[in-house]
Inverse folding.
């Protein structure tokens, strides 16, 4: 069951365990992913459908791999009204939030004729990977597709593995329809990543690939990075809750379990200044555990990567939170906005007793694709910026170049790049003539 940590030694040991969480020997998997990627790159559709038949559905081929917009619409129409409303509301809130992230091209014109600026343009084609199998993740569709649409990406290609009978879950197709996916293909695994990266006779080559997947998908994304861009190499899910004596132990326990149930490597940590709260939360976690269906997963994650850490002050609690740099950070405290000023590293920050992490997963609007494993120290959530590129704009008249020309020449010569210096010097010499 979840442990309470009070000593410095126990805290350091637990933090070391968190640091190596998810660090597994991927050598065998990486070789398998590379083989798949290489074959699809060279043999295209032939290899793509061979792997699809082997692992997903043997009946899928070039003639039926693509899902029509009409089929997406039909899937949406078959959903129960409450789910239709939920997906539509979620999509609207996600779009509204991401609209505020949009950047515009800008130009700065000076009186001497110097013009500097930045041009913002969307990527042309983006691939979105959505896990398949028995699970259905319509929220993943919305979170990956809508920022791309807001950015102005014209062609969004979604790939997701079909079941053995060649079907896709209606929830995923409905979400694709609502989000505005251009086209959907019934392929998955490392072979789908390779197809998006290099293109086949059936699958278009894209500029960037986003979306979660299993270890083969993750390693395939790493393999094709450089030929195309990717979002990130995601690690196991995690939540960290900073709480004081005002927190509701039942709420906190439920929130910890909401992440611990993801998989055996999931982490759920409570940092609190109240020993009384710590003990109450420990009891509530044990009580909830008895009625949870995913006990095998919960028992592993709770025993290895979950803990309640008691800190002497809110200041030290925030310092520890910043050191961990969690994917999800809840501030279950009396004055959350005051504590927020002390937080530097977190993927998403949930303020107050009535902002549990699942609000962000499904309905709030900010993206739930977040940096994991401490990478919130330098990575940000998925957003509109991930689907644009920026070009610098420079224009100098003769009058603008002359005053800084000698400095450019001197700078270039200091780096022993004499042709660089010459490029400017010949223009200065022309002015002398």
């Amino acid at each position: 069951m979840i442990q309470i940590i009070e000593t410095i030694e126990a805290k350091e040991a637990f933090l070391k365990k968190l640091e190596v969480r998810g660090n597994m020997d991927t050598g065998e998997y990486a070789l398998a992913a590379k083989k798949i990627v290489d074959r699809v790159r060279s043999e295209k559709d032939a290899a793509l459908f061979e792997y699809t038949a082997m692992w997903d559905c043997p009946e899928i081929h070039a003639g039926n791999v693509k899902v029509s917009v009409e089929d997406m619409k039909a899937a949406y129409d078959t959903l129960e009204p409450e789910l239709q409303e939920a997906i539509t509301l979620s999509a609207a809130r996600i779009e509204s939030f991401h609209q505020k992230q949009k950047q515009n091209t800008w130009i700065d014109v000076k009186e001497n004729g110097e013009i500097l600026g930045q041009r913002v343009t969307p990527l042309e084609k983006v691939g979105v990977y959505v896990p398949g199998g028995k699970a259905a993740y319509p929220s993943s569709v919305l979170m990956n597709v809508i920022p791309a649409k807001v950015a102005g990406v014209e062609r969004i290609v979604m790939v997701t593995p079909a079941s053995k009978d060649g079907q896709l879950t209606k929830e995923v197709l409905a979400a694709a329809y609502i989000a505005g996916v251009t086209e959907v293909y019934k392929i998955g695994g490392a072979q789908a990543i390779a197809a998006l990266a290099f293109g086949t006779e059936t699958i278009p080559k894209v500029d960037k690939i986003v979306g979660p997947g299993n270890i083969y998908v993750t390693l395939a994304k790493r393999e094709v990075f450089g030929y195309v861009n990717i979002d990130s190499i995601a690690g196991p899910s995690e939540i960290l809750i900073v709480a004081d004596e005002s927190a509701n132990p039942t709420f906190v326990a439920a929130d910890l379990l909401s992440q611990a149930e993801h998989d055996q490597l999931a982490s759920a940590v409570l940092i609190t200044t109240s020993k009384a709260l710590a003990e109450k939360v420990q009891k509530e976690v044990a009580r909830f555990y008895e009625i949870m269906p995913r006990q095998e997963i919960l028992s592993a994650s709770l025993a290895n990567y979950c803990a309640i850490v008691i800190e002497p002050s809110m200041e030290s609690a925030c310092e520890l939170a910043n050191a961990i740099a969690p994917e999800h950070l809840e501030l279950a405290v009396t004055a959350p906005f005051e504590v927020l000023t002390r937080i530097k590293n977190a993927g998403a920050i949930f303020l107050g007793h009535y902002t549990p992490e699942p609000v962000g997963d499904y309905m709030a609007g900010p993206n739930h694709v977040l940096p994991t494993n401490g990478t919130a120290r330098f990575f940000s959530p998925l957003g509109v910026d991930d689907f644009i590129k920026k070009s610098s704009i420079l224009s100098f008249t003769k009058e603008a170049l002359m005053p800084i020309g000698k400095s450019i020449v001197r700078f270039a010569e200091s780096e022993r790049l004499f042709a660089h210096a010459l490029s400017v010097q010949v223009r200065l010499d022309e002015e002398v003539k």
